[in-house]
Amino acid sequence: MSPNMKTLIALAALLSLSAMAGSIPDECRVGGFPMGCQAYTFNRFTVFEAIEKTDQAGGRTIEFFPGQALSPEERTVKFDHNASAEVLEKVKAKLAKHKIQAVNYGVVGIPAEEAKARPIFEFAKKMDLYGITTESDTSIDTIEKLVKEFDIRVGFHEHARQPKNESYKIWDPNYVLNLVKDRDPRIGACADTGHWASSGLKPLDCIKLLKGRLISLHLKERQKIGEHLPDQVYGTGASDIAGILQELKRQNFQGHISIEYENNWDHSVPDVAQCIGFVRGWGARN
Length: 286
Prior knowledge:
The protein is α/β, with parallel strands linked by helices and 286 residues long.
């Protein structure tokens, strides 16, 4: 067998592993996609309340963020990758009660020093997560090593462009693509369509650019492209949510969609439910 053929076989095996490992159960799908909430949507509440509200809105997955208070009874206990085994078991029990699947954790800084990065991946493995979300682009070598070891995906997230900070490059999907294109296939992008819109980018164009490297989405609807405006219900703005869903279907996207709704903070469940209903309705038609 030629060296080129051996390389192709090895690559095919790796891609197959990436597609199968840590897959999200079909019962978590809404409109054809694993879908739920980024707990930051409910950051004025606790982890337990975020799980409850995700369930109330009709979501089936949840993406945690570091440092949220655990529950109304234990507000001083913070949930993150340093949480005790007891706290992890409490969260797992709450998830099981509401039939919600934990899928991701972030946005979290991943240190370049392996010993400091390792606990984040160990936490993800203990929680049976699909992925981790970060903006730590300078830690890419450490991230790749731990992705291979733990079989946990990593998606690079972006906030809006910072015109006064030229060192902040990760807002640009071209930069993210160049960062990950020669790396393990389990490393890619967490596509935040709201921050892309704030940066003056059309989210659908960015989704197309990152084909094959999309790990997850923070799917947001924005009223206008090029302005930082509050999120709104899907289908009422300029983000072309239907077009994004169609493109994800065309790409056979196997990651998850998290609604990170940054508006109406204290009473957002009805708005989130409408977003989930939009995706459910789109799926019924497509």
